[in-house]
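Form 12-C: Joint structure prediction
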Amino acid sequence: MFQNILLATDGSKYATYAAEAVLGLVKEFQNKDREIILLHVSDTPPTRSQLMQADLDVQSVLREKAGKAVASTEQKFAEADVAYTLEVALGDPADGIVDFAKTNDIDLIIIGSRGLGAVGSVLLGSVSRRVAHEAPCPVMIVK
Amino acid sequence: MLKQVHELRNSWFSNLRLDILAGITVALALIPESIAFSIIAGVDPMVGLYASFCIAVTIAFVGGRPGMISGATGAMALLMITLVANHGLEYLLAATVLTGIIQIVCGLLKLGRFISFIPHAVMLGFVNALAILIFMAQIPYFVGEGWLVYGLIAATLGIIYGLPRLTKAVPSALVAIIVITTLSVAMGFGVQTVGDMGHITRAFPVFALPNIELSLQTLMIILPYSLTLALVGMLESLLTASIVDEMTHTKSDKNREIRGQGIANTITGFFGGMAGCAMIGQSVINVKSGGRGRLSSLVAGLFLIFLILVLGDVVMMIPMAALVGVMIMVSVGTFDWQSITNLRRVPIPDTLVMVSTVAVVVYTHDLAKGVAVGVILSAIIFGWKIAKITMAEELLADGTKRYSVQGQLFFASTSKFVNAFDVLGDPERVIIDFSDSHVWDHSAVNAIARILQKYKKAGKDIAMVGLNAASEKIINDIGVDAPSGH
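Section 2 - Result
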C-alpha cells in the first residue's frame, strides 16, 4: 500500500524530524514487537438502562458499543493475522485521542481524515485536524 | 497535613481557567431547566433557580465527585407534584430538608452500593415514566394555544436539534431560548411567558425555617416523599458520577458524594429551594468544556445567581413555548428508546414489571407508587420463580430410597418439599440428597426437622447428604432434633 512515499522537505528542523520519522516507520514495520492499539472514543454517555444493566461499570458498556462499531475493523485485523488491543474512552473524540496518546506513550497516531458527520466536519474543523494540532506525537491522517 | 493542603489545591485550583469557563457555560445551561422543572413541580421559578444555586455551590465544597454538576432536576421535580398540589410550598421545603438528612445518614452508613439492588426493570419503568410525565406536563401549555405557539415550539426544537450540527460550543437549548425570546419580544407576540407562571425575584435567597407545624402528622405527610426523593437523588447522582469518573479517568468518593448531596439538599431547603440531585446533561457539558475541579461547580452556581440578579426581568419575558420545546427535548432524551427495541429480547416478566411501573405512574401521576408496584411485582415474580423446587425419588440397589431436592428451600417452597415424602410407604432406609439445593431459613429447617421426626417415629433410618456449608450451618444453628411448633 505504501510503495512510493513522498517526504516533502525544506531542510528545516521539522523536515528533519519528518525524515527521521520515515526511517523509524520503515524500521518499525519490520519489527514484530510493535503494539497496535485500536481506540474508540464514544461521544455520548451510556443510557441509564445500559448503566444499570452493567452495574454502573461504564467501561463494559463502552466496550460493547465499541465492539459493535469497529467489528469490521477487528475482522480485517484478524484476517491479516495482526495482533492488536482494543481500548475505549468516553468524551470529546479529539480530547480522548490526544489524552490517550499522552498518557500511554504513543509514538504514532493514525486517523481517518473525516468521520461519520460529513456535514459537521466541514463546519467544525474535524477531529483529525484537532488531533494533528494537539497530539504529543506524529499524526498520520489517511485520506 | 501537607498532603491535605496539596489535595485541596489539586481539587480546587489545578485547572483554574478551564474550570471558570466551563462553570459559566454550565450556568447558562442550568437556567432553562431550573425554571422549567419548577413549573413542573408547581412552584415559583425562583424555587428551582435558588435550588440550583444552593446545590451547585454547596456540592462544590462537600461533594465527592469534583467536576460533577448538581441542581434542580426533572426526576426530583416530578416526585414533588402531588406534595405541592396538596400541601403547598412550605411542606416541599420541609421535605427537602428531610431528604437531605436521609441522604446524609445513607452517606455516613455507606449505603451507596446497595442502590443497585433496585431491579433494573423497575428503574427502566421509572425512567420511561419520567419521560412520559415530563412530556405530559407540557401538554397544557400548548394544546389549543394556537398556531403561533405551535410555531414557536417547532422553532425551539429546530434550533435545539439543528444547532449542534453546526457548533457545540454553546448550549443549543440556551440559544433557542434567547432567539425565541428576542423574536417574541421584538414582534410583540403576546404569548404566555415565564412571568405569567410566577415572579423572578432579583435577590439572594434568605435563610428561613420551613413554615410548618412540627408534628408527627407533618412528618407522616413528608416522609414518603423524602424517602423517594432521597433514593432517586442518590441513584441519579451515582449514575452521573460513574459517567464523570469514566470521562475524567479519575475515581470518585461515592459515599462522600451521597453525604454531600444530603448536605446540599438540607441547606437548599432552608434557603427556599427544592430538592435536587446530580444532572447528567450538565455534568457532561461541564467535562466536555474542560471543567474538572470543584471550582467549576462553584462558578456555575455563582454565575447562575449573578445572571438572575442582573437578568431577572429578561427571564420573565421567556415565552412558555420556548421552555416547552426544551422540556420536549429533555423528555425525548430521557426516554430509554432501547427498552422498546429490546422488548423482544428481554424476558416477559421483566417487561411486565417495566410496563406496570410505567402504567401505574402515568395513571396516578405518582412516581413513588409506580416504583413501589414495580418492586413488589419484581419480588413476587422472583419469589415465584425461585420457589420452584423439584423432588426426584430413586430406589437404590441396596434397597435404600433416595430423595433428591433440586432448588431453593425456604418458606415459600417448604410445603412442596414436605408433601413429596411418603413416610409409611418408604423402605427402612432413606436418604435426602441436598446437592442441588440450599437451605435458607427457619421454615426450611423446621420442615426438615418435621420430616426427620416422622421417619424416626415410624422407626425408619433417615440421613441427609450433600448439604453445602451454609446450609449445614443454619441447620446446626437452629437444630433439627425438636421442631418448634409450626
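Section 3 - Comments
Chain B has a mean pLDDT of 87. The longest helix of chain B spans residues 216-248.
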